[in-house]
Amino acid sequence: MAVVQANEEDMKMLARLMRAEAEGEGVQGMLLAGNVMVNRVFASCIDFTDIRTIPQMAFQSPGGFEAVQKGYFYQRARDKEIRLARRLVNGERFSPAQESLWFFRPAGECPAQWFGQPNVGRFKAHCFFSPTYADCPDVYR
Q1: CB neighbours (10 Å) of residue 49?
Q2: Among 16, 40, 98, 128, which one is least packed by beta carbons within 10 Å?
């Protein structure tokens, strides 16, 4: 069962964004980045109280994704990434991003916090940050 509403165009948009943000980190990296993206649509808290759709999430400004802002988001959605996007929309979650609302690629070590939220892990080059339950109980579904 879907955890967020998504039509075919939304699924392609999510797939393109996952690819643009984390293709270099393989399937697992794209799934982790996609977890964060779906969580931003699902959770109504912090900077994401008005984000209810995949397009709103993808084009959120400020606070959106570098791939959208810098133009490399506009590559075609491939079947491989669309299948991954479907898995996430249908509720699959992966550690360390299962409750994360942020990820980024630092030049060095992961900072202990990002936007006041604790670091919950790293996968390859990306660090993941999850809100506390008190700050965002919805993401802990």
Answers
A1: 9
A2: 98
As a whole number of angstroms, the distance between CA 103 and CA 100 comes to 8
Q: What SS3 class is residue 121?
A: strand
* Contacts for 46-51: CB closer than 8 Å, 24+ residues apart: 46/101, 46/115, 46/131, 46/135, 46/136, 47/101, 47/115, 48/101
What per-residue confidence (pLDDT) applies to 82?
98
Looking at residues 74-85, what average pLDDT do you find? 93
Beta-bridged to residue 118, according to DSSP, are 113
**Cβ–Cβ < 8 Å for 120, 45:** no
Contact (Cβ atoms closer than 8 angstroms) between residue 10 and residue 53: yes
Write the DSSP string, 11-40. Answer: HHHHHHHHHHHHGGGHHHHHHHHHHHHHHH
- What does the block give as tokens for 118? 């604790």
Handedness of CA 22, 25, 30, 35 (dihedral sign): negative
Cα separation, 38 vs 4, whole angstroms: 7
CB 136 within 8 A of CB 45: yes
Cβ(114)–Cβ(104) below 8 Å? yes
pTM for the full predicted model? 0.96
